[in-house]
Amino acid sequence: MDLENVVVFGITLGDLLFRAIYFGVVFAITYFVQHLLARALRRMLNASKVPSASIFVNIVRGVIWALGLLMVLKPVFGIEPTAFVAALGVSSVVISFGLQDTVSNLFSGLGLTLGKVIAPHDYVKVGDFEGVVTDVNWRNTVVQDRLGNQQIIPNSVLNKTAFLRRSASQAGSCGVSFSVAMGADLNAVAEEVVELADAALGPMADTQYESGVYFTSFDAYGVHGTVYVHVKPDVTLATAQDAIVRALEGRPWLASALNEGK
What we know:
Elements: E1 7-8, E2 11-12, H1 13-47, H2 54-77, H3 81-98, H4 100-114, E3 123-126, E4 129-136, E5 140-144, E6 150-154, H5 155-158, E7 164-166, H6 168-171, E8 173-180, H7 186-201, E9 212-219, E10 222-230, H8 237-248, E11 259-261
Antiparallel strand pairs: 1-2, 3-4, 3-7, 4-5, 5-6, 8-10, 8-11, 9-10
């Protein structure tokens, strides 16, 4: 069969086959190039002071795919790239209105990350929700708490919202309040409470930070103190507090029922 004499949709079969092969080759090359560049960029971001957020990787991927599209316009679709870019520029005003929120989220995300306002692995509190920033992408920022719940916050909203960024030591800090009977040896009580709390937590404790007891006030019921401990990121504060309360329950120097606190 002579492929040059077979016409499909006004295109000879030979030409159609060439276009399909060309499109497939360009698609494969573009896919592997963007994949390799994305991996290399992630390594560069991890080794640099720039936050390793997926927004930068997504922008590079978008640019590579755009270049791949321009490469196939003329050979495959018969469209001049310059005409396509010109038409895209004319229609960009119309498109910008439809993608106004998306564009706002994109630039807000770039501002947040390049300005080092927020980055992956930061421990933040936004409103009543707090957790670790797992990613900042082209549209939103993902925050995950210790229970695995995720809060998806649009970048444009976060850019206009005040939030608290906690230090590494504060992120895993939790406390349990208790009252000590008047006349008890506070130094001995503090030492015993720390030992009991550390033993109760066991492998849940973050050992790079020391536990401590602070006495803050007293009244007719006794002296009020709080034991502060640090737990690992995968441990919930409630679990740690429960273990400590159970360990301190029944101590002879207790003045009143234990109250959990942060």
